[in-house]
Automatic annotation (TrEMBL):
The keyword Membrane applies. The chain crosses the membrane at residues 6-33, 54-77, 103-125, 157-176. This is Putative membrane protein. It comes from Schumannella luteola. Keywords: Membrane, Transmembrane, Transmembrane helix.
Length: 177
């Protein structure tokens, strides 16, 4: 497979995975969390503990963690390919072989948002709160919920926005290829 085809395939895979990840996070924020706000404290804690166990599967984790690798690999292939994008090539034929194009820059930015905004927030903010909720087995449900719900929801909003922004950048990069 030549570098141009590999770049296109990796970018398409990255766009699909990033879109799925953003959809999972947005669906959770828009559907699950509003429903969880309607239940009592004991049901909330019990349901979140069950959800935290249930999401440990490739259909959930893949779209959250794999876009980084697909988009990062696409950016590296695009950079190493030495060819810019059609836009950059039209701007200057001599620069097009040495300057990364707009698509490559957008792919790096999309990968960076996945790393910092999705994976970093998930592992640095959401998972530790999930673990704390699990460890607080003997805690009164109202106190456990009070310590968990607001910060977890805020960090989920951050990673959802990062996932959506990453997807948008990756789609624009794909359009530029």
């Amino acid at each position: 497979m030549d570098a141009t085809t590999l770049l296109l395939v990796l970018t398409i895979v990255g766009v699909v995975l990033a879109g799925l990840g953003a959809g999972i996070l947005l669906g959770f924020a828009a559907g699950v969390l509003p429903g969880m706000r309607r239940v009592d404290d004991g049901a909330f804690v019990g349901a979140f503990r069950a959800i935290n166990k249930g999401v440990m599967n490739p259909l959930f984790l893949g779209p959250l963690f794999l876009p980084l690798f697909a988009l990062g690999a696409a950016a590296i292939v695009g950079l190493s390919r030495g060819t810019a994008t059609p836009i950059a090539a039209a701007a200057s034929a001599s620069d097009a072989t040495t300057t990364p194009g707009e698509a490559v820059v957008l792919l790096f930015a999309a990968a960076a948002l996945q790393l910092a905004g999705v994976i970093g927030v998930t592992l640095g903010a959401n998972v530790p709160r999930n673990d704390a909720l699990e460890r607080d087995g003997g805690r009164e449900p109202r106190a456990a919920r009070a310590a968990f719900e607001r910060p977890w929801t805020a960090w989920n909003a951050v990673r959802t926005l990062a996932a959506v922004a990453s997807t948008v950048l990756a789609v624009i990069a794909l359009a530029l290829l």
